[in-house]
Structures are given as structure tokens and as C-alpha cells.
Amino acid sequence: THFLKKLDAQKIPLHTQRAFLESLREISCPHLIFTQWGALGTIHLTQLPYLTHLVSLEAPGCTGITEGIVGVLAQQCPLLEHLNLSQNTQIKRIFRHEKIEQQGVFKIFEKMGYKEWIEYPPFFKYLKRLQLNKCPNLEEIKLEAPNLSVFEANGSAKLTVLQLLAPLLRRAEFKLITPLTDEKLVQWVRQWPHIQ
């Protein structure tokens, strides 16, 4: 199978959703579209064996997905071009973090004031479209995506920090973001020279 069709699970019982997600371990599919999957969580996505071949992931309304998934996808899905995590109440921040100990430089970072973890923007080399619409708790996005051309955060009302390194961005949408002032919007848009 090359494309798993849109799966709207609002009316499917959670135990049936879980059984289906287990069966996905046997399928190689570069395009996944889930809608309203209560059973779909970060752990299910990270256990899929073919993440390195994943090109698009759409999971609007899948509230079991936590904010840590973006960093995991950046590491495990090098070919990802389209990511839709809209309508997610669990995501507050988009970032990536690693244990400093694993980097072999813990003592240096400890002296600089860092404890166990270091945070930095996730890097998506091929990501072209990012959708984070109606994420009511999303406050901060730090992301690097050199090929990103479309970014949407409509209705993500608490978004106040946006560090989006995307030199090819052509379209950005920020409708219904309450704390967004004209000054902040102008500041954000200046990051992207090709914006329309």
C-alpha cells in the first residue's frame, strides 16, 4: 500500500483503534492520514518501522499525540514533506531536545547552566507544508525547515513565540490568534523574504 486513505475514527471504539494501530506495524506506507484518533499517540507513531520512508503525516484531532512527537519526527522521518497536527490540545511547544549526557559534553553544558537536557529547533530538510491550526494550547514554535513554503497556525490562539527558520516560506496564515499584535505579526513576517 502506498497511501493509507483518510481514517476518521470518531465513532470507532478505542480498543478497535488500538488493534488497527498494532496492525500498521506490518504495512509500509509513506502517506498516513488519521482524523480524530483518540488511540493514536506518540508511542504508536514512534514504533512504526517505516518512519524513514514517511513522506506525509496528517493527524488532525489526534489528542494522544504529545509535543515531543515533532522532535522525534525530525530525527526519524528525514523525507517528511507534509505535517498536519491541527486540533491538538496536547501540543504547547514545538521543539527538539536531547539528553546532554548522550552528547558526551555534559560537564561543559552543566557549567553553562544547563541541567540534563538541551533544546533546539527540530530540523526538517524536506518539509514543505506545516499545519498547526486550532491547537488551543500552542504557545511556542521553534523549527528549522529550509524548504517550507506553507505554514498555517489559524486559531492557535495562544501562539506568542515563533522562530521559524524557513527562507522559502511563501504563505503563512495566522487567523484568530488573540495575543498577536500587528507589531508582532510584522516581526514574524520579516523572517521570510518571499512571503506573499
Could you give a quick summary of the protein structure above?
This protein has 196 residues and is of the alpha/beta class. The chain has helices spanning 14-23, 42-46, 69-76, 106-111, 182-189, and strands at residues 7-8, 31-35, 56-58, 82-84, 93-94, 96-99, 117-120, 129-131, 140-144, 150-152, 161-165, 171-173.
Strand and helix map with partners:
Layout: E1 7-8, H1 14-23, E2 31-35, H2 42-46, E3 56-58, H3 69-76, E4 82-84, E5 93-94, E6 96-99, H4 106-111, E7 117-120, E8 129-131, E9 140-144, E10 150-152, E11 161-165, E12 171-173, H5 182-189
Question: From the structure provided, what is the oligomeric state, counting identical versus distinct chains?
Answer: single chain
Distance between the termini: 37 Å
Give unreliable regions as ranges: 1-5, 100-106
Pattern of helices and strands = EHEHEHEEEHEEEEEEH
Portion in helices = 10-25%
Strand portion = 15-25%
Task: Work out the radius of gyration.
Answer: 17 Å
Please tally the helical runs, counting DSSP H or I stretches of 4 or more residues.
Answer: 5
Number of strands: 12
Q: The biggest beta sheet, please?
A: 7 strands, parallel
Overall mean confidence score, pLDDT:
75
Structural class: alpha/beta
Label the overall shape: globular
Q: Strands of the biggest beta sheet: in what spatial order?
A: 1-2-3-4-8-10-12
Structure description:
This protein is α/β, with parallel strands linked by helices. The protein has 5 helices and 12 strands. The chain has a 7-stranded parallel sheet with strand order 1-2-3-4-8-10-12, with no helix packed on it. The longest helix has 10 residues. It is globular. The N terminus is likely disordered.
